[in-house]
Amino acid sequence: MRKSLAFWITIALCLIALVASAVLLVDYVRPAPVFCGADGGCGAVKRSAYAFPLGIPMPVFGIAGFLAIAFAAMVPGRRARIGQAMVASFAGIVALGLFVVQATLNTICPYCAVVDGVALVLAGLSIARALKEWDPPKARPAVVGSAVALVIAVAAPVSFGMSTKIVPLDVPANIAEEIRKTPRGKVTVVDFVDFECPFCRMTHAEFEPVLAQRKDKVRVVRKHVPLRMHPHAMDMAKTACCGEAQGKGDEIAEALFKADPERLTPEGCEELAREHGLDAAQFKSCFSDPSIAARIRADSQAFRDARGHGLPTIYIDGTKLEGAQDRETLESTLDGAIKAL
User: Fold this and answer.
1) Which of 30, 168, 227, 253 has its CA 20 to 30 A from that of 200?
2) Among 336, 340, 334, which residue's Cα sits nearest to residue 220?
3) Crossing angle (nearest 10°) for helices 198-213 and 249-258
4) pTM for the complete prediction?
5) In angstroms, what is the C-alpha Rg of the chain?
6) Across 86-90, 140-144, 267-271, least confident range
7) Which of 81, 118, 67, 114 has its CA nearest to residue 3?
8) Which one-letter DSSP state was computed for residue 49?
């Protein structure tokens, strides 16, 4: 094998192992996993007695070891070759032990398997380098470029993983999806609502001023669940959707909450839309658009999927509030979520 090829293979393998180790480190230190499922092989290994030697996450040792191997590979000379071989050989022995641990646990951690497999290959390459006296290319750009790539291989997964919003594991999938869509630094409020529901109206009256005071910290997602017992609820839901389509979702929703439901026939909804500056032709087309009815059906299904039983149902990040709520409860729950950001 040409010595330059051996060098580049070593660097490439170290990059792969560093990315996998950084991914594992994120999941070891965050309260809920970002990259791996909690119930999968990675979670099982993380819960084992071997995950935190000396109280330090195992991936830290992996990152340190692969960086040491890679930087030794960039240095010419006998001492660097022997040092690389020693570190890589130790890493290979540890990797064999960790494969045994996974076999004992009767599970497989994909990222761990990548790290351990790479460690075994690097052990062989590093010993071969020491025996055949291979040294790295003399071109300075190759060494500098490799060093930069190694730093990025660790920094990129850690930066992404640590900035990703954690969603509690017991939150319904569709709520979790909305939470993940919310920009970092904001709380997600998912409000399942029927504009004709008296308890929804009472709760909105309590919640609206709380939200207004914290609007820069909150993303509100309104999902429509018009109940069959309320004859005007479907038309009101369509009106709200069409208000959103023209960029006046909050204004129209507020008007619907305050309006007399008996007034809100299709004609009454059209009048309300005009009063709030919506384009009449565009509103009329939207109101009769089958996609709006389909969206409302999807919202109602989302309510069922989110284990909703009564209205209003509000999710403030991972906390579920069901039924009429007073201002104190809404305020304390929202403030608690904001503090947890």
Assistant:
1) 168
2) 334
3) 140
4) 0.65
5) 29
6) 140-144
7) 81
8) T
Distance CA 54, CA 80 (A): 28
Cα 231 to Cα 113: distance, rounded to the nearest angstrom = 59
Q: What CATH code is carried by the domain that includes residue 238? A: 3.40.30.10
pLDDT average, residue stretch 268-293: 96
Q: Provide the number of structural domains found in the chain.
A: 2
228 and 285 in a common domain: yes
pLDDT tens-place string over residues 299-327: 999 999 988 889 999 999 989 999 999 99
Torsion from C-alpha of 303, 309, 311, 313, nearest 10 degrees: -60
**Domain-located, residue 302:** yes
The domain that contains 102 carries what CATH number?
Answer: 1.20.1440
Element (H, E) at 91: helix 78-105
How far apart are the C-alpha atoms of 22 and 158, rounded to whole Å? 6
**Is residue 243 a contact partner of residue 270, using CB atoms and an 8 Å limit?**
no
- CA dist 239 and 287 (Å) reads 7
> Does any domain span residue 247?
yes
Both structure tokens of 278: 């919506």
